Amino acid sequence: MNELFGFSTLDLSRFQFATTSIFHYFFVPFTVGFALIIAILQTLAYRSHDPKLENLTRFFGHLFFINFAVGVVTGIVQEFQFGMNWQGFSNFVGNIFGVPLALEVLMAFFLESTFLGLWWFGKDRLPAWASLASIWIVALGTTVSAFWIILANAWMQHPVGYAIKNGRAVMTDAWAIVTNPKALEWFAHLWSGGLTVAAFFVLAVSAYHLRRRHNVPTFRVSFQVALLTALIGSLGVIAAGHVQGQSAVRDQPMKYAAFSALWDTPTGAQMPESLVALPSNGAHTNRFEVTVPYVGSFLAFNNFSGKAKGLNDLQKEYVAKYGPGNYLPWVWPVYWAFRVMVGLGGLMLLVSAYYTWRWRRGQLDDPGRLYPLLLVMPLAPHLANFSGWVATEMGRQPWIVQGLLRTADAVSGLTPRTVLVSLAAFWVVYLTLIGLDVFLLTRTARAGMHEPEVETPSVPAPNYLPEGAAP
Amino acid sequence: MTADLPTVWFGLTALTFTIYFFLDGFDFGVGILQPFLARNEAQRRALIGTVGPFWAANEVWVILAASVIFAAFPLWYGALLTALYPLFALILLALIGRGVAFEYRSEVDHVRWRLFWDVTSFVTNLLPAFLWGVIMSNMVRGLPLGVGGRFQGHVLGAFDLFTVLGGLATLSLFVLHGATYLLLRLHRDGTLYLRARRAALLWGAAATVLVLAFVYVGFVRSGVFNSLGLSQWLFPAAAALNLGLVWLALTLRRDGLAFAATGLTVVFSTATIFLSLYPSVLPSTLGEAYTLTVRNSASEPYTLRLLSWVSLTFLPLIVGYQAWNYYVFRQRVQERDQAIPGGGSGD
């Protein structure tokens, strides 16, 4: 039995990988940006000795905690699935790919989980400086973690520092892998993206309470910190995205052509960019498209005459280079996911610029006419991340390691039924988690700050004996 | 045993699993014991409080164990996780449920909400505690692996007398370990402490019987637990002696000694598994030629050297700050006597 309901083990394993990664990625970038915002808030509280700011820190810390729990547990699945579903991949790249994963655990996971526990449970047991240091260490940990995982992913998209030995990739130059230019661009992109996820969430929560005139001076602080983070994050995402697009033209031209639904290499003096298109893999062309001249050249090369290769020419090149086969990704989802991502990035920049402008005019306390938009904006960066992953991961198919290993050769020899059963189980659990997470976040966020911040028995609260009591 | 790099990394893999079972073992134990020991909300809260600040960091050791196998022994990693796919999927689902149960239980002050998480917590602590034993004994017994470590068997093949006994052995050991951990963490005047003592005595007996049965079945079957010549008896015997020591310590009311003894039992049991594996990492039941060994499944020296340097730098640091974490929260946990606002008594 090689197929179940028309799905092969490969299809189902790919779907499972997408599920694990995308669900995990609803929580991870949130912690990256959020830890930083909380660390900044606590620094402000530490310097001003303002108990209200201290409360604000705990309030957002509680939201962070709710989210972090799910981030940790979905991360375990992420770690195990390479071996479970992708035995061929593990065998081929373990020498290289396993290393950044191990480094991520050693340098980041232990740090995050230990110091978050110390920060949250140890508030009354640690001196103020140690508590502050703990949350900064958590913030550092999330960033380091993002770096290593991006490094691993970037290697799959742009392998460097390796040699092929006995049919497997082995590491020859660790420094080349760590300084993979692709990894650095992507890290900038993803880290900025992480800032926007947390920033728009904190903005929405702060705006909600500002609108209701709850603790206005206090929520003004979080609004300002989040607004600056959102502005920096949106600018960073767009700038890094632009650089990434240009490196894709060089390193993954097929993916870039799919982003633009560019089937034929342009014949004119410049390259247009399509605004909307209906790409068809069957017809090897767009059934419909609206293009703007020169924009494509500018986006890909920063000039007005550059031309990237089209999908059809690349397919011919790849057949010549790698042998017969279909090297085209599935163009329409890649094309549209890419556009959704770019559009949302633009929207995030506009909204943060608008509120920065209001701030300059002294209208910060009033969320203004865009208030309803501000409340749904936390969805935008999530959706952008989702689309970004769809675009970049579907865009590199059929390769799991660009030019070296095809996805079809990487999959484990499981029966489709085994994968389908686990897939269904993961979906049930993940959907429940998302529902619980959103429910608890909304509930806690709306409850706001209390004096002192004990609104719920926030964590399994241990009741400790006073210091010095007999053990 | 020559101290070449792959062997060193095999040892480090064993060490990582040992630390994981030692640390998360008592988390599992506390989770499984909770419904039996706690009769009201204050007691439940106290039990959760004993592991609250620690469980997340304890659990990271299994992520490290997985990534160490991935980086140092890619063939082992792919073959093991694929062959026992359903068991690992269950463990992952359980670890998800357990972590969320820890954190979300007290987020909503409602009896049914907490009951839901208590049930979830019990089941999701029980499952991995059992399944890790099944997985470890499958590793020792060997799996039907073909060319390139491809699995040729069926999932039900993972269960037989030996592996089920292995699962029951880890389950009972972890419960016992959790009980002695509670003796260290609970205030001695509480009723919980007394119940934890009774549980430790009871589960000490159960663990002794099950571990001995597992070892006996392992010895009877050829090819299992016999890679080390004479010293094969050393570790199971030490584990059994330790279990005796637990009883002695409990009778003498030496909490620290009791916990050390259950911890050492976990250490010896894990060591037995890995020592009897060596120099294989995953024996194939289809033929010696397909057996994955430390040598034929290890990464290149370059990768292993790199890993060694990084681990040498970071492992001491990790152990240091985790120890500090335990030091910060060293006070014993007491049952809260005041009523929980809005919460039912749960009796």
Automatic annotation (TrEMBL), chain A:
Keywords of this entry: Cell membrane, Electron transport, Heme, Iron, Membrane, Metal-binding, Plasmid, Transmembrane, Transmembrane helix, Transport
Compartments, as annotated in UniProt: Cell membrane
Annotated TM spans: 22-44, 56-77, 97-121, 128-151, 190-210, 222-243, 336-357, 369-391, 419-441
Topological relation to the membrane, as annotated: Multi-pass membrane protein
Pfam families assigned to the protein according to its UniProt record, in alphabetical order: Cyt_bd_oxida_I
InterPro entries with a match to the protein in the record: Cyt-d_ubiquinol_oxidase_su_1
Region ranges (Disordered): 451-471
Main location per the UniProt record: membrane
Family: Belongs to the cytochrome ubiquinol oxidase subunit 1 family.
Designated name of the protein: Cytochrome ubiquinol oxidase subunit I
TrEMBL record, chain B:
Superkingdom: Bacteria
Residue stretches spanning the membrane: 12-33, 54-77, 83-103, 115-135, 155-179, 200-219, 231-250, 257-278, 306-328
Protein name per its UniProtKB record: Cytochrome c oxidase assembly protein
Gene: cydB
High-level lineage: Bacteria, Thermotogati, Deinococcota, Deinococci, Deinococcales
Topology with respect to the bilayer: Multi-pass membrane protein
Entry keyword annotation includes Nuclease: no
NCBIfam families for the chain: cydB
Family (UniProt): Belongs to the cytochrome ubiquinol oxidase subunit 2 family.
InterPro entries to which the protein is assigned, alphabetical: Cyt-d_oxidase_su2 (IPR003317)
Pfam family of the protein (one): Cyt_bd_oxida_II
Compartments, record wording: Cell membrane
Keywords: Cell membrane, Electron transport, Heme, Iron, Membrane, Metal-binding, Plasmid, Transmembrane, Transmembrane helix, Transport
UniProt keyword Transmembrane, yes or no: yes
